[in-house]
């Protein structure tokens, strides 16, 4: 035997231990500059290993990225707050619905609301996201009708996908939301292809790829970066680093790499690492990267640094693998609270209005939920014709499928 | 003997092999500290340490590629794909590397490894948590393909697979992880712990690869099936009131053609049942084999009951799933001739 040993990364705390985020370096808000749109990978290094933050600990917007946002109106910010509250209300109601058997599966994005809500509002019609299952916020930011969103979760006749897809695997072309696959990573490179087509067709549109920290380990993450680097299409490649991939600590996917953002530098793709719980930082950096892509300066990668507060999914029990209250100890706080505090500090919002807005959102979601439930739920289904499963496999029903449908009795 | 679920039996197989062979290594996504999303490897890392049981990045081709590298040195990796649906990024490593290493190196290098994966539907998993990819592996020379239907077989077959000198694809029908399934999705399922077939020896034993099991002896017709569908076929036979012989193939590659031939020669009728989609499915292979060796004994055409040729639908899962009624109908049809 030699002294050669393998390394197995470990999270700083397990269930019987106290949450520990002391390893995480959090620079002060406002330190990093706003780079020019033609930023190169080499020039982006400080931003790829640092952390772009706009809101300071007292809720003030500070630094160059705050200036970049300029005269951002309080209305826009209140809109963002409402989006996040609406998402949170949906998460709450739908998780309940899952526990009651009304839907077979649900997946929350609590703690990550700022990212998708903020990003989506900076896109334009025709742009396309290639999301994962945890970016429902992109639909909220696009004002996707709640009836369809909840209908999909219930697999009833309001479900645009006719019960074919697992709940939360939405598809909404008109709202810039590509059809979700359950296979991780596969769509990151498809986003690059879509963006290449945007460039080839000269339609002025862009694409945005989305991936979790865990799934950056997949082959397709690397394929996407290489292809994006080679062809320089208008694509924004997002990595949502929420610290966990089911039970697996983020360090397993990262290995000894510095940050996920820094990974892009080796491919010659500029990268920025951003406080994903800071709504202002989210919109500032989203705007910058989207503008850069649209103006033809090529791809950029953004690592959104955040924390998955909820369980991985309704089938998961995180108390088996991570410290209790870890979410509450997350040093970058709660995106909703942080934006609220900022608006309050600006004199544009109050605790009372916040409580009222929360109640309004919950009431709105509950009302839509009731209405959607009248069309059937998973425990109380209103039958979709079984023949539906033969539709849409091909453009035209081939003979062998027609025979099988007949054999089924339809 | 102990009562075990299929999950526990599989865990017990890995436990036995980790204990008796230092070359055995278990890894995959979430399999280490947490013990896997189905908890199949729960407790193994605590018992054997993380050099023997560990978590991997979400990169299936890396999981299999690493296993090949280890196996080529004589270690015995037993790796997990979180779902069979996620084996495809590793398909190249499995089919063009692992399966061929022995042959192309003229036996300088070999690949004794097992790739475990939960397979099939029946849990409302939608398109990407329900697939049955067995035919994509039985088409590849150099692999062995195993699919158990009881906890006893699961453990014995997994030990045999880990001890096998060649790469083995080990499909675990997740619908029967915790108990058998009688084909009625709203019916109560009986946990394995209350089921005679849940009896499993705690120590080492093998169920040899390449040997089918005659689950039910009968003289009217032969049903060839495997995995979850063994139970659905049993329910159908009971409902149809025929004296069918049900054969649980257990290993699809290599196929136990002797047991199949003896049965079909006796009954003269045969149907094939699987959950995977029909076209180019394993059923087609079975029918071809039976036809070649038993043609002159057949009293009726061989028919098959399979999933439809559509992606596995989430909400309409029970329209896709071949239930007892579908099998019963085909039994009657075959018996008419
Ligand atoms: C190719 C593939 N392998 C495995 C899985 C199973 N799986 C589903 S989610 C998940 C963890 C993903 O973690 P991450 O990418 O960090 O995203 P998060 O869930 O944290 O948002 C795994 C392993 C899958 N869906 N696809």
TrEMBL record, chain A:
The keyword Cell inner membrane does not apply. Its EC number is 1.2.4.4. Residues 84-375 form the Dehydrogenase E1 component domain. GO terms for molecular function: branched-chain 2-oxo acid dehydrogenase activity. Residues 5-41 form the 2-oxoisovalerate dehydrogenase E1 alpha subunit N-terminal domain. Coiled coil: none annotated. Its cofactor is thiamine diphosphate. It catalyses: N(6)-[(R)-lipoyl]-L-lysyl-[protein] + 3-methyl-2-oxobutanoate + H(+) = N(6)-[(R)-S(8)-2-methylpropanoyldihydrolipoyl]-L-lysyl-[protein] + CO2. The keyword Oxidoreductase applies. InterPro entries: Alpha-ketoacid_DH_E1_comp, DH_E1, Oxoisoval_DH_suAlpha_N_dom, THDP-binding. It comes from the Bacteria. Pfam families: E1_dh (PF00676), OxoDH_E1alpha_N (PF12573). GO terms for biological process: branched-chain amino acid catabolic process. It is an enzyme of class 1 (oxidoreductase). Belongs to the BCKDHA family. PANTHER family: 2-OXOISOVALERATE DEHYDROGENASE SUBUNIT ALPHA, MITOCHONDRIAL. The branched-chain alpha-keto dehydrogenase complex catalyzes the overall conversion of alpha-keto acids to acyl-CoA and CO(2). It contains multiple copies of three enzymatic components: branched-chain alpha-keto acid decarboxylase (E1), lipoamide acyltransferase (E2) and lipoamide dehydrogenase (E3). This is 2-oxoisovalerate dehydrogenase subunit alpha. It comes from Pseudosulfitobacter pseudonitzschiae. The lineage of its organism: Bacteria, Pseudomonadati, Pseudomonadota, Alphaproteobacteria, Rhodobacterales.
UniProtKB/TrEMBL annotation, chain B:
Pfam families: Transket_pyr (PF02779), Transketolase_C (PF02780). Keywords: Oxidoreductase. SMART domains: Transket_pyr. Its cofactor is thiamine diphosphate. The keyword Metal-binding does not apply. GO terms for molecular function: branched-chain 2-oxo acid dehydrogenase activity. It is an enzyme of class 1 (oxidoreductase). One of its GO terms (biological process) is response to nutrient. Its EC number is 1.2.4.4. Residues 4-179 form the Transketolase-like pyrimidine-binding domain. Transmembrane segments: none annotated. This is 3-methyl-2-oxobutanoate dehydrogenase (2-methylpropanoyl-transferring).
